[in-house]
Amino acid sequence: MTIHPETIVVQPGALLATAPAEAMIEQLNVALAGHDLWLPVCPLTPGLRLGDLVAHNAGGRRRLAFGLIGRYVRAATLYAGDTILGGPTIKRATGLGLHRAIAGGGIDLGPLRDLTFSLRPLPAARACLSIRCADLGAACRLADGLLHRGLALSALAMAEGAGDTGLLLAELAGAPAVVERQAAELVAAARAAGAHAQRADDAAWGRWESLAESHLAAAHAIELTLPRASLPAFIDAARARAGRHGRTLTIWGDAGVGALYLRLSGPPAAEGQRCMEEIAGLARALGGELSTELGRGVRAHFSVTSDVSYRANAKRSPDTIHLFDTLRAIVGPRYLLTRPDDLMAYALDASIARSEGPPLAVALPASAAELVALMRVAAEHGLPVVSRGAGTGLAGGATPSPGALLIGLNRMDQIIIDRAQMVAHVGAGATTAEVQRAAEAVGLFYPPDPSSLSASTIGGNIACNAGGPRCVKYGVTADYVLGLTAVLADGGLTRWGDGLAGQGPDNGMAQLLVGSEGTLAVIAEATLRLLPLPAARRTAMAIFQSLDDACATVERIMASGVVPAAMELMDDTTIAAVEAYLQAGLPHDAGAMLLMLADGEPEAVEADSLALADLARRGAAVRVQVARSAAEEADLWRGRRAIAPALARIRPSRLGEDISVPLPQIAACVRRIKQVSVEHGLPIVVFGHAGDGNLHPNILFDPRDPTEAARLWPCAEAIFAVALELGGTLSGEHGIGTLKRPFMRRAVGESAIDIQRRIKQWLDPEGRMNPGKVFPDMI
């Protein structure tokens, strides 16, 4: 198929590109290179179509640093019904994340027509080093050691060399000064480990390209992901097993992510197949899983053609005394709440949503086993189930249905940091802040940072796909979920995702639960990806006379190649409210303010913070300040953190919304919201995460004033309409819950609603999981 350049649409200021699914990755990256951008997916085999790469959830040779293609899919258009999944925003918490779930082929929704991707700036510098080790096991051990040095590694490919030696191909990518310094560190580390490192170029990848070609042509081959620490032992065991069958193995892979590709010698035969099955068993015994990188491990769990149907929930009237006794036996008397006062405390979340009635009971399990037992009792008695974390949600997603069993997950708060594998095994009830502190204690970093992180739970973050200010550089919760343990409506315990690289055959199923708001299953535990803790950080503040100048600066920054770790916007009303509250010296006539955070290696932070300040000045900023100490940085962020109490001085209540729009539409969106404020006679302040287009319009009102209360929802509906007209979405990270449910059909379209409904019926045929949330007109 010939793809004409004009069919690839690039939006540099929005860091987005749309291309036909039939286009090849090379064609897309050629079109992007002129903008100094790329989609950082670099397969070892040339000529692969974008649609195939999504079906494999491929990452290619540089997935160690840049991850898998599923991380970059923002929208997909199906041929069937021109159905659009997702949309052109970085954040999107508007129903099921089908655009993410299709990556890896686990969710088959039919042929793809077009794909929209988020992009990254091309690295300013790269260095490639070839490292010869004593053997393949030594190469794996050296690679594991390099990963814990905090180097800007983009690749750590491994292969067998001459005479049983092991080869590593290490790549560094980033700021030139950082790359040069770390290249010298890498050479010294290799020498200390008894290996020899020398500079190489892209031609060195030829060995791995040939290995990939041979792997795809082989009769007996397998692709796996294992814990990195298990690679040497597995390689020895796999070779020994092949030897018992009179065969030899060719082994190569990506030591950085624990990916191995094994090819068995000899002709096709049943014995060869048995040998590969035994080797797969060895991998699973060591915590390994099949991979989909080259396409061999792809299998669909759900197809849009699957036969699913709604099954009416039989109205059973359980003997409540007997039922409560059964529930108490599971969680203990202290952790089953049935008193009216206790039930009313769980009938609310942090939003203005109100439940139609209290739950039947609140159960607080301490383990996955207790959760399974509770879900089985609920299934037996036909009880609706509502799961809940800390109740910090802002859309009514955790408000119970009358007569439901509400399951609070706060006691399931275990946190285990696997420093070697750089992952966290976390109970759904652990708070985001606790996970961050546990990671930072061992030099690691969990980036998602919703404003409620001190109270919000990981389970709640996953249910709403929360993000926070750091999303602009680091992505949202979905980008860190490697595996989930969940309990289905019938009480069945399931584990989806490989827990290693997010590239297992059922990764799409794990991604399906992210953002599902408890409507498909109850999340019990998660395995989360961690990063090295940034070595340095610095904040710059810029004040502008006009909102347009600030928003134009945002777009200019995002197209400049500098990706800030956070970029927060405050409009004039927000600035005035904060200044009245703090008296921090902010100008009363300021039109907008940007807070910009740079983090990473010290040299890069120094350069990036100065570049951000310079871009702000060129964007007509009237005042720019770069923090030079931790105290100065805290002062700069104090105003952003004071927004909530500052707004409470204007009106006693507020409806905090969470729209997300494409970056080029931020200024137009805020201007339109100002008009909505005038038209409805209610003050609206706008602040949010400018770098990813996630705005938080807050409608201020007095609930004691019936005229203001009556204007509230028409005002909110007008804001939703503005966001949708500008190509945005209802929610970036708060979710839909009950409050935005009436607007879902308009937001995603009837055909996408139908797909979401079918998936809901597949996993929850009786409709008992968090009923009345997210999906419009569900029985």
Give a quick precis of the structure:
The chain has 779 residues and is α+β, with helices and mostly antiparallel strands. The protein is built from 25 helices and 35 strands.
Strand order of the largest sheet: 12-9-11-10-14-15-13-16
- What is the strand tally? 35
At CATH level 3, the topology of the largest domain is Alpha-Beta Plaits
Low-confidence stretches: none
Distance between the termini: 45 Å
The CATH architecture of the largest domain is 2-Layer Sandwich
Number of domains: 5
The class by helix and strand makeup works out as: alpha+beta
Question: How would you describe this protein?
Answer:
This protein has 25 helices and 35 strands. By secondary structure, the chain is α+β, with helices and mostly antiparallel strands. It has five domains: 5-121, Uridine Diphospho-n-acetylenolpyruvylglucosamine Reductase, domain 3, CATH 3.30.465.10; 126-262, 2-Layer Sandwich (Alpha-Beta Plaits); 320-408, Uridine Diphospho-n-acetylenolpyruvylglucosamine Reductase, domain 2 (2-Layer Sandwich), CATH 3.30.43.10; 415-532, Uridine Diphospho-n-acetylenolpyruvylglucosamine Reductase, domain 3 (2-Layer Sandwich), CATH 3.30.465.10; 534-629, Alpha-Beta Plaits (2-Layer Sandwich), CATH 3.30.70.3450. The strands form eight sheets. The protein has an eight-stranded antiparallel beta sheet, with helices on both faces. It has a seven-stranded antiparallel beta sheet with strand order 32-29-31-30-34-35-33, sandwiched between helices. Helix 17 (547-558) crosses helix 19 and helix 22 (666-680) packs antiparallel against helix 23 (706-725). It is globular and about 85 Å long.
